[in-house]
């Protein structure tokens, strides 16, 4: 299991270890891990280590002492920009400073001009930073980012919230890292919201701590192991009824494309039969995929189908009527787009959704989640995990909070962050495709949480597959995703 530890959880682990390990052990191990990571990234001779006032700075100083120490075989110039701060350092940091000063490292108190750094190591601030970076430190971060050189961040890029993935402060700054080596355990903020852009590649250094010594984490990274039990190859002795029915309800005037995209995704993700029940007529046949059956939403009998409600549905009286009927029924639901906006405007519909016994997955983007919660999208983005948990609890549903590092949350508070996907998914119709995959997996008998985890992972992996084959991320279209998702699903099943 790929656990993600909050700052509070990491602090508890550190406190527990402090009772059994000699003082300074974790800092020394962190310095060794940082030095090793720096060696692996180094492609020249000039290393700049930024050491801030806290223990994160102590980690950087330990790394400097190793890289420039008497036993090193590294042919490099090691420079340390030390910003000690006004408060006294911890005893461990004091010892790390003494070791670094006793090495061949060159200490400076300002950023040297005109140096072509091969690597910059960020040890300015760690996970304990709770306020925006300001003043001279802000100017230093901005200057480092402007250099455009490879950066190794220690534990978390300075200025980034390790819990939320937000840059700290409404107009805050953070180090733009090429790679982050994070200590003891992985952090959720490195994998969602702005964290994916600032952290770069993430490497976990457990610092010699056995996984059994760590308590269970409150979040995890999504991975196929979490839904693998549903990935068995199909039996030869099966038929279309073996794989369920999906009905996509949507398609108001001028928005017929959204339910068609969703239906095609459901078809390519393996549903046995797929319908589009349109608010406005969309024609007699989908000539691209005539396997999809087209119906009128007002008199459509969904039977035992899983319903995907919302793609292009609009806010008409008809849309409200079919949504109310679905919420009163016993079908498994995927609620997206306009269905979520209608529910957000109606406390009655929210209550009906929360009281349903049948499975439901809701797939809001941040603005839709904000409407459902009665807050702003900035509040949702400011703590995506908390927002997803709150929404799942209120609606008694599995929540897929879309965005960079999509968050999947259960009503019981379990949370996962999805690592697949790229900027190509920021395109019209991408969410409709995701809703269709969710509905398809539900129809095939997947449990709601696993259907959400699997759909989000496959959806992102489909975009990654397309980019790997030269399609995107610029110009990637939602219509390309279903076939790529089919390839990903079949590869997983094999």
From TrEMBL:
Binds 1 potassium ion per subunit. The keyword Lyase applies. AMP binds at residues 402-406, 431. Residues 223-492 form the YjeF C-terminal domain. K(+) binds at residues 56, 122, 158. One of its GO terms (biological process) is nicotinamide nucleotide metabolic process. Residues 10-215 form the YjeF N-terminal domain. It catalyses: (6S)-NADHX + ADP = AMP + phosphate + NADH + H(+); (6R)-NADPHX = (6S)-NADPHX; (6S)-NADPHX + ADP = AMP + phosphate + NADPH + H(+); (6R)-NADHX = (6S)-NADHX. Its cofactor is Mg(2+); K(+). Pfam families: Carb_kinase, YjeF_N. The keyword Nucleotide-binding applies. One of its GO terms (molecular function) is ATP binding. In the N-terminal section; belongs to the NnrE/AIBP family. Belongs to the NnrE/AIBP family. Bifunctional enzyme that catalyzes the epimerization of the S- and R-forms of NAD(P)HX and the dehydration of the S-form of NAD(P)HX at the expense of ADP, which is converted to AMP. This allows the repair of both epimers of NAD(P)HX, a damaged form of NAD(P)H that is a result of enzymatic or heat-dependent hydration. Homotetramer. This is Bifunctional NAD(P)H-hydrate repair enzyme. The lineage of its organism: Bacteria, Pseudomonadati, Pseudomonadota, Betaproteobacteria, Burkholderiales.
């Amino acid at each position: 299991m790929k656990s993600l530890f909050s700052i509070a959880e990491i602090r508890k682990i550190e406190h527990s270890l402090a009772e059994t390990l000699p003082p300074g052990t974790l800092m020394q191990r962190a310095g060794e891990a940082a030095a090793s990571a720096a060696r692996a990234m180094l492609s020249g001779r000039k290393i700049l280590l930024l050491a801030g006032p806290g223990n994160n700075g102590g980690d950087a100083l330990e790394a400097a002492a190793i890289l420039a120490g008497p036993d090193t075989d590294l042919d490099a110039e090691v420079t340390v920009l030390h910003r000690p701060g006004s408060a006294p350092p911890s005893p461990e940091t004091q010892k790390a400073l003494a070791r670094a000063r006793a090495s061949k490292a060159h200490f400076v108190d300002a950023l040297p001009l005109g140096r072509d750094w091969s690597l910059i190591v960020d040890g300015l601030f760690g996970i304990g930073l709770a306020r925006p970076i300001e003043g001279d430190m802000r100017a230093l971060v901005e200057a480092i980012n402007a250099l455009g050189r490879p950066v190794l961040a220690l534990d978390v890029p300075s200025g980034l919230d390790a819990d939320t993935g937000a840059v700290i402060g409404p107009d805050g700054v953070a180090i733009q890292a090429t790679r982050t080596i994070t200590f003891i355990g992985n952090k959720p903020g490195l994998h969602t919201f702005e964290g994916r852009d600032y952290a770069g590649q993430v490497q976990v250094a457990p610092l010699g701590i056995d996984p059994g010594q760590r308590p269970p984490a409150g979040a995890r990274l999504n991975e196929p192991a979490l839904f693998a039990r549903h990935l068995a190859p199909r039996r030869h002795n099966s038929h279309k009824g073996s794989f369920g029915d999906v009905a996509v309800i949507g398609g108001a005037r001028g928005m017929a494309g959204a339910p068609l995209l969703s239906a095609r995704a459901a078809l390519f993700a393996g549903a046995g039969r797929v319908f589009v029940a349109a608010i406005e007529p969309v024609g007699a046949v989908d000539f691209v995929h005539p396997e999809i059956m087209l119906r009128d939403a007002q008199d459509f009998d969904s039977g035992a189908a899983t319903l995907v409600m919302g793609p292009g549905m609009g806010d008409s009286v008809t849309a409200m009527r079919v949504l109310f009927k679905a919420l009163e029924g016993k079908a498994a639901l995927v609620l997206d787009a306009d269905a979520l906006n209608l529910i957000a405007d109606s406390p009655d519909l929210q209550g009906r959704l929360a009281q349903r016994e049948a499975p439901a997955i809701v797939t809001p983007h941040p603005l839709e989640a904000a409407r459902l919660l009665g807050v702003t999208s900035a509040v949702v983005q400011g703590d995506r995990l908390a927002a997803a948990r709150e929404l799942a609890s209120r609606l008694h549903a599995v929540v897929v909070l879309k965005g960079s590092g999509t968050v999947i949350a259960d009503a019981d508070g379990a949370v996962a962050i999805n690592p697949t996907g790229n900027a190509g998914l920021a395109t019209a119709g991408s969410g409709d495709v995701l809703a269709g995959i969710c509905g398809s997996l539900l129809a095939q008998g997947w449990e709601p949480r696993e259907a959400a985890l699997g759909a989000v992972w496959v959806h992102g992996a489909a975009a990654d597959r397309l980019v790997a084959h030269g399609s995107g991320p610029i110009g990637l279209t939602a219509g390309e995703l279903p076939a790529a998702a089919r390839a990903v699903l079949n590869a997983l099943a094999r």
